[in-house]
Amino acid sequence: MQKEDKERVVAELTEKLRRSETLFVADYRGLTMPQIDALRGRLIEQGARLSVVKNTLTRRAAEAAGADALLALLEGPSAIAFIEADGDMVAVAKALADSARDTKVLEIRGGVMQGREISAADVEELAKLPPFDVLRGQVLAAMIAPLNNLLALVNAPLQGLYGLIDARIEQLQAAGPVSDTEVSDTTETTEIQEEETDGSS
């Protein structure tokens, strides 16, 4: 590889490292090209890009990008799965774990998550989680449940008030409307009482 090509590769890797908050590293020794291509295709479906680059160039890129946590994982031939902003890290971890199990060759070394190094065991635990959409639904359900309970507590007194109002309306309707004669009698009685009061004064 010419010096210019090496500089271009390092520059591209540096930019990838700066953009990616999460990446996984694996030892790919023993994988055939068809196996690597199949893994690369599966990772693309989950929002990740697999890069196979010499460690010397990757180290230069990691140093330039300030990705010190990656340096410890670069022992032997390394394949790096860069997870894009809209990628599913759980699905990517599962794809790597499945490939490691099926080929019995690929070995997960670990990864970097938000600047912190994670172990191979951490990646394998991620692979056991439900898909991201399901996991997000479970988190939302856990957050919404207390709100539903609060709404039930708030609504309970209101429902009781509505019940009292309905009962009062039914009571008034059962009593029937006030007749015009009753209204007239009441008015006349009031007027007589007022006249008597004026006369006595």
Shape: elongated
Q: Tell me the total number of β-strands.
A: 5
Total number of helical segments?
Answer: 8
Order of helices and strands: HEHEHHEHEEHHH
CATH fold assignment of the largest domain: Alpha-Beta Plaits
CATH superfamily of the largest domain: Ribosomal protein L10, N-terminal RNA-binding domain
Query: What characterizes the major β-sheet?
Result: 5 strands, antiparallel
Distance between the termini: 123 Å
Mean pLDDT comes to: 78
Strand coverage percent: 5-15%
Ranges where pLDDT stays below 50 over 5 or more residues in a row are: 179-195
Going by CATH, the architecture of the largest domain would be 2-Layer Sandwich
Can you tell me about this structure?
The protein has helices spanning 3-19, 33-45, 55-65, 68-71, 89-103, 120-127, 132-175, 180-200, and strands spanning 22-27, 48-52, 79-83, 107-113, 116-119. The longest helix has 44 residues, at 132-175. The protein has 201 residues and is α+β, with helices and mostly antiparallel strands. It folds into two domains: 3-129, 2-Layer Sandwich (Alpha-Beta Plaits), CATH 3.30.70.1730; 137-200. 66% of the residues lie in helices and 13% in strands. α1 (3-19) crosses α3, α2 (33-45) packs antiparallel against α5 and α5 packs across α6 (120-127). β4 and β5 (116-119) form a beta hairpin. A five-stranded antiparallel β-sheet has the order 2-3-1-4-5.
